[in-house]
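re: ur question from the group chat, yeah i did fold both. here u go
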Amino acid sequence: RGRFVLAGIPAGPLTLTAERLGFERGTLSVQVPSGAARADFRLAPAAFALEEIVVSASREAQRRAETPATVHAIAGSAIRAAMPAHPSEIANRVPGVWIGAAGGEGHRTAIRQPLTTKPVYLFLEDGVPTRSTGFFNHNALYEVNVPQADRIEVLKGPATALYGSDAIGGVVSVGTRAPSAGAGGEGALEGGAFGWGRALLTAAATRGRDGVRADLNLTRTDGWRDATDYTRQGGTLRWDRDLPGDATLRTTATFSRIDQTDPSAVSLADFRDRPTVNYNPIASRQVEAFRLASALEKVSGSTLFSVTPFVRRNSMEIVPSWMLSYDPVWYRTGHSSLGVLARVRRDFAPLRARVIAGVDVDYSPGYRVERRIAPQKDGSSIRSYTAADPLYDYAVTFRGVSPYVQAEASPTDRMRVAAGLRYDRAGYDYDSRLAPLAAGPHRRPADAAPRYDHLSPKLGVTYEGGPALGLYASYGHGFRAPSEGQLFRQGPAVSSIDLEPVCADNLEAGFRGRLGRLSYDAAAYRMRIRDDILTFRDAAGNRIASNAGETLHRGVELGAALELTGELTADANWSRSRQTYEDWAPSAAVDYAGNGIEAAPGDLASARLAYAPGWLAGARVEGEWTRVGSYWMDPENTHRYGGHDLFNLRAVLPVGSGVELVGRVVNLADRRYAELASYSAFAKEEMTPGMPRTVYVGVRYAPGR
């Protein structure tokens, strides 16, 4: 709430500096008496923040200029201006990030990796992982209330040394909004093509030491393709309380319920001539997610103590669309979690040193029940099925205890060095309710208890040459334990229980700064991944996962924002990458070493131009261009997708008393494009058609904004 207490300050003259994202820096000279003193700041708004504050790189608020990592933040104001119907509409403005739509709010993610469903990313809400390590879901952002979030941070590259398993490609951290200073509410109602409708409702109040905020997200659509309807009910309840003795308590409860029909990929001919067709209208999923976390923080002198106990419950029942053509199944999976994130931070005067030490504990029992199904075809579509034999039925519990330590110091006024080390002790207890099976397409391992022990270091340095130029370089090591599905849903593989953890080593360097009205950043990276778990699709269509030797990922990422005038702003980003198989021979007759990895575009780019007229406060018009470059469709590198360019338009028109009319047009040029294109000898070209031109209009009530 803008109140800070600085204890242990000696008497005498003092210079205080206050900074907040979106405001100019404020500086005040104070003569501190022998007792207490009070200083009040009033900060003027600024179009661009001189000093951006980030959290995800160290689990502590710190200046981005002193962060030896590539981290980007999307402010809540930008999220609310975009009103994204899908996470890709906001997250893809970060350099080097591509989130592709996969039905409803489902998505695949590419951050220094190909577009993938593999468990190589960590998704956080208020610093707490949305799922346990063992039960990764690549659609994690549909379990988070993105349109009503306060902030999204994207930390790119391995972050295992701080966050543990999962964080190889990067970390996507979503923050919830704090209660408002007074009592009030907000709301938005939106409609659009293909039966789209959404209500975003908020109520908040603060009284004394307590503040409460409640957000509700109700969404539905018929889908633009045949039988691709989608409904979502989600919400966030947050309670902030100031406690005596410089302590705070933040309790957050979130829930999501999703019911959707998943669209199929289509042939190249249907992609061109009838992209609305859905071969598999029976493909569906019902998802439920609940999280409760309570973060207690207490400051005592130069020491901060923090403990965050949490509980989670996730479940999903699904008929997977992508398996109906070669291995039709129905399954239900889920897990519950009990865990705690605890840390202590101590600051030292010499060298502005800081030490953070903590431990993460996660206990997550879960299950999987899977049955073969017999699909019933109606022409070219599968519209019904009957359940058949049980294939998998097991209970599995993930356990993890991970202590870590991080130290920072400034050997000079301009240089800051950070180093960290984490030890992960993790594993599973797997108990099958069906007998082991050693042959066939659905083999089952015997009861097992695999364990993983791993040390993960990181090292980074920043150098501030001034506001115009800051430099940084870092080394990070990543570690990823196999997920329960990779280990215990064996499929046709000879063995899956002995899959090794994925390990990554990343080197990166970059620079960032501000020149007048221009702010910019640039980064270059080289990441080598060992024992990458890759899936080989044989001639029969079976998918077999194995540790695949090495892959190499390298690239450059650029971002810039420019205030052209007081009313006109522009920002743009561009990245180029090359991702290759260095060592992968899935069979004696097949060797992919040296080939480019499929679904890994060489270029990603976007740009926005926004006009906010001074004569109509609150009005805004924004045009956007996004590009996904060409990429290989298969590991053999025989087929290539040419890439695509899309244009979007957004507008806000205030009509008085806090009421705004809002509108968006997605894919303004009505371009035919693929969210994902692939090729295999079994299925030939398969395309997932992207949404055509779509118009959304609505009304929003946001008093005081």
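okk and heres the other one u asked abt
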Amino acid sequence: MKKGDKQRISTAVLVAIAASFPVSAPAQEQKSAAAAQEGIGDIVVTAQRREQNLQDVPVAVTAFSGETIADLGIRSSADIASVVPNLAIGLPGGEGNQPLIYIRGVGLADFNSNNAGPNGVYVDEVYISSPGAQTFQLFDLDRVEVLKGPQGTLYGRNATGGAINFITAKPSRDFQARASLSYGSFDTITGEAAIGGPIGDGVRFRLAGTGTHSDGYVRNLLTGRRENGQGSFALRGQLAFDVADNFDALLGVHGGRVDTRSPQFRSLGLLDPATGFSTPCALDAIRANQCGNALGYVSPRRFHDGDYNKSEHLEVGNWGGAAHLNWRIGGVTLTSISAYDDVDKTHREDSDASPASLLEVDYHVRSKTFTQELRLSGSGGGVTWVAGGYYLHETLRQNQTVDLFRELRFLVPDGGADTAGAATGGAPVLFARTINRQTTEAAALFGQVEVALTPALRATLGGRYNHERKRFIATSQFEEDFIDGFAIPGGVLPLYVFDNRKTYDNVSFKIGLDYDIADDVMAYASISTGFKSGGFNGGFLSFDPAEAAVQAGPFEEETLTAYEIGLK
């Protein structure tokens, strides 16, 4: 994401041809052709906020049933990218950390948790605003839907690239129970269980949970332990009520925790051992792992071996709840979705990936989010419509530290602190802390209508208005006894304090046509726009207050226009 005074406008020209069998190929290979063809009628999605056969939706959608997800061995929300075309999900901070999600090349490469990407992640229609909570274990699912292209005229939170919808299994009218336990390499144990059914007249429940433990696939030669393992669990409970013939409610709570040693990286040396690590290596030597860092450390030959002096825990805790209410009045349905999520994450990183304490960064973020969505929907006379409003309030706090050149303190002849930077080429040993608080308020009005122009031809028109306001307060300080040889009373030297605000407004739209060429063939075309609000740099800023003041300023919003032609 670039900063600047002008709005960045991205235009994507997309031609999508959807296959006739939108479920996964591995699952289909186990069935006969006749059974697979018959199964198409059973693939029901809610991509347009109503139940439809996947083949009748004039949108590029990839859908998988919960059973197929389990058969494919997909255990994490990040793993679905392996089976969905034009979807890429990276975990640069390792398992359990926030993802970088790209749909059709649209994404956000930001390691900070105060900026959500342009692709929406939803669980049971609830938007997951915190990037730190967008990586989670998958269990007891009904289905997963991945929508490509701008999504705003039907969805509570706007998305320019697309949306990923995780729909969980709901309380059933019949008693159900299941459990599974698996064992794999590196002592990986995964368990999952679910139980549910009726508990009274018009009342049903469902409880589900999962847990994983793994020793990890990386060997720490310094300690003899395994790294990059897993240690997590998640729980979910739901109650469904048939309050009246035209009114039903679904109440749900969820929680989970990740508690494992922080994932380790691999050090990539750039300096030539033949010259005493004083000159850069050639590119082919760097790639062949023949080079080291300024202290002479060269990574072990085996790719999954390393020497790590810092092996503290990655801790992520989240909990929340949601209430879904549906009230049917004649031919109109009023839907209310209220949700709250709390996420607390601490990632302690051995950033230099070596046995020396050269660069160690700790990230801590705590976010609290409340969302409310109201929708009206109905159909009749060849017209299907939905209209709604959405509100989001998020408070996010970050506390991040960087510990630089600590190992080099002990290279000073008298054993004291290298306060003048003699052993570091002029850079003082320092410990810096950045603390920021961001408040986001977002509101939107949206709607979409589909009109049957003829029995075979339909037109779609949708629109959305976005209003978003952000406030960002950032402080930074050195925490050392000495800075450049000067004693610091109390060990704290304040650097800067910023209090910035920015408001964003946008109107976006969708226009589309779809036509039934034959009973089993549909063609469609659409033009749609998307909007992603700007924000603030939530990472480490310059130690120069003047430069930091520029870096702390807001960056502008992004818009995207997509032209799509499809055939199903």
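fwiw on the second one: The helical segments are 25-28, 33-39, 66-71, 283-287, 545-551. Residues 148 and 401 are 37 Å apart (CA to CA). idk if thats what u expected
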